Amino acid sequence: MVTPEQRMEELQVSVRNVMKRIGMV
Q1: Among 1, 24, 2, 22, which Cα is nearest to 11's?
Q2: 11-25: per-residue pLDDT in tens?
Q3: Domain of life here (predicted)?
């Protein structure tokens, strides 16, 4: 089972990765 906290962390990490990609480009 995945807890909401873990799900939120995954979302934040994915958002950070996208922001880094946009920043690079």
Answers
A1: 2
A2: 999 999 999 999 987
A3: Eukaryota
Indicate left, alpha or beta for 2 from its phi (over 0: left) and psi (-120 to 50: alpha). beta
List Cα–Cα distances, 15 to 1, 18, in angstroms.
Answer: 22, 5
Backbone CA torsion sign across 10, 12, 18, 21: negative
| CA atoms of 25 and 8, how far apart (whole Å) | 26
Confidence (pTM)? 0.56
